[in-house]
Amino acid sequence: MPKDNELYFAVLPQITVSGSNVGQTEQVLTLLSGKEQATAFHIDEVATYILFFENRQQYLTGGHVKGYTLSQVPKGDGRFYVKVIQHVD
């Protein structure tokens, strides 16, 4: 019987502190298991992050991971979480 994982988007800033790229900054999109640490997005950001993930999910699918379903969850303050259901078998 298939089992799914409920995950949420988090956008994390990273600053390189060693090597030849010291001080290089970037943002990383990752998936976390709860809303407590998830990023709350403004409505004008949600579609962009969802589209970005959908265009890259092929690289996160394989083995037991069969696919993903994404949805917006209102936070209650005008912002939204992105809920990701990771379909696994």
Explain what you see.
- The protein is of the alpha+beta class and 89 residues long.
- It has one domain (3-88).
- Helices cover 16% and strands 48% of the residues.
- The chain has one helix at residues 43-56; strands at residues 3-15, 25-32, 41-42, 65-74, 79-88.
- Strands 1, 2, 3, 4 and 5 form a 5-stranded antiparallel β-sheet that branches.
- 9% of the residues are buried.
Q: What is the rounded Rg?
A: 15 Å
String of helices and strands: EEEHEE
Give the distance, in angstroms, between the N- and C-terminal Cα atoms: 7 Å
What does the overall shape look like?
globular
Secondary structure: helix percent:
10-25%
Task: List low-pLDDT spans.
Answer: none
SS element count, helices: 1
Content of β-strand:
over 45%
Q: Estimate nothing, just give the exact number of structural domains.
A: 1
Compute the average pLDDT: 95
How would you classify the helix and strand content by structural class? alpha+beta
In total, the number of strands is 5
What are its keywords?
single chain, 89 residues, alpha+beta
Briefly summarize what is shown.
By secondary structure, the chain is α+β, with helices and mostly antiparallel strands. The protein has one helix spanning 43-56, and strands at 3-15, 25-32, 41-42, 65-74, 79-88. The longest helix is centred in the middle third of the chain and has 14 residues, at 43-56.
